[in-house]
Structures are given as structure tokens and as C-alpha cells.
Amino acid sequence: MGGVSGFIKYSMFIFNFIFWACGCVILGVAIYARVSENGNDIVSAEVQPINIHAAANLLIAVGAIIMVLGFLGCCGAMKESRCMLLLFFIGLLLIVIIQIAAGVVGIVYKSKLEDSFKETFQEQVKSLTLEGADHETFRNSLEKVQKEFKCCGLVDGAADWGRYFDQYSASCLCTNVTNAKDICTTYNGKQVYKQACGDAIIDFLKKNLMVVAGIAFGVAVIEILGMVFSMVLYCQIGKK
């Protein structure tokens, strides 16, 4: 009769204790964000790209799932419970399958998602030249984006501002730029950034998606190792 490997057993416990602790942190932060009265004041309701409460709800679900899996892994390893280890294995397997499916969907619909962003930007350009409190809020928000990304306008550059160009052109101006010929252009006698903010935002998302993909790959490797360890321990307990 084979014995249970102490290395695998305690490695499983340590790994899942950290896993469980991370779940607790995520759950706590998400609940705070959900119940906080200032949760939706971070970005004005007219221009916020995502609903803060929806994001918090998603994090609550993620934190809860991580906590449950961490608990099953810890207890399954220490108590040598085949049932808990099997549930832990199945849970991780489902998560890996969802990650793979999400990755495939992301690759397939990448171009469609980019086109959707561009269509949204085309519609929002109208708000730059219309009057009203909501449109004024949107113009102020875009001005902040211009300062952050060093861009101008939303789709067609400075021309998007129309009659409001002189009022909002300060954040469009190319100042202290070393490669001005590459990123600046002339509009109404002023040197402004050539790139539209819509393109800058899409480029930013593409770069960050690569980072997210790298993190997801690393997490998937850890998850697969967790599945292997849990199944090895499951088999060893059965032989014992």
C-alpha cells in the first residue's frame, strides 16, 4: 500500500491557503466597493465606461469562488479527503475551460470589438459640438483624456471640437515634444497632437490585453499544477 507524499500534501495546503487568503481580500474589497456610497462617484454617470456596481458584483463572485476552492484544497489536503480534492479538481478544471473559451472568443471577436469601439466613438463625437450639461461633462472628460494620452479629438483629431476648439485646445497643444514631426500636426495655426483619442484608447487597450493575456497564461499554469497535485494526492489517498 502506498503512502501519502508529505511534500505534495503540504505544498497543496500552502498553495491553497494563499489562494484562500487572496479570495478573502478580493471579496472584502469588492463588498466595500459595492456598499460604499461613493462607489459610483469615481466617474460621472454620463461618461463612465463601466458600471462600478456591476464590476463589484463580478469581483464578489470571483472572490467567493476563490475562497471556496481554497477551502476545499486546504481541507482536502490536510484531512486527506478524496471528496474535497475531487471537488477542488473539478472546480479548477471548469475555471481553466472558461479561461480557454474566453481566450478563443476574444481572438475570434477581436476585430469586431475594435469596430464596435470605433462606432461608439463616432456617435460620441456629436457630443463635442452640442450644448447642454451632459455634453459639457463629456467635453471636460475628453479633455482629461487628451492630457493623459497626448491626443486630440476623438475620431478625426482637432476637427472634432468644431466651434469649441479654441476653448478646449490647451490640452491638444504639442509642447516640449522631441519628435514633433511624428506626433504633431497644424490645425487653425496651432501645433496639436496628430493622433485622435479614440485610436489612442484602442492602442492602450491592445497593449493592456497583452499584459492580461500573459497574466492569464501564468495563472493557467498554476491552476494546472494545482490540478495535477490534487489528482496525485487523490490517487495516493486511494491507494493508502
Features:
two-stranded antiparallel sheet, 240 residues, mainly alpha, 8 helices, elongated
Short characterization:
By secondary structure, the protein is mainly alpha-helical.
Q: Care to count the β-strands?
A: 2
What percent strand? under 5%
Strand arrangement in the largest pleated sheet = 1-2
> What is the overall pLDDT average?
81
Give an overview in words.
It is built from 8 helices and 2 strands. It has 2 domains: 133 residues, no CATH class; 67 residues, no CATH class. The longest helix has 43 residues. A two-stranded antiparallel sheet has the order 1-2. With 240 residues, the protein is mainly alpha-helical. Helix 1 runs antiparallel to helix 8, helix 2 packs antiparallel against helix 3 and helix 3 packs antiparallel against helix 8. It is elongated. The N and C termini lie close together (6 Å).
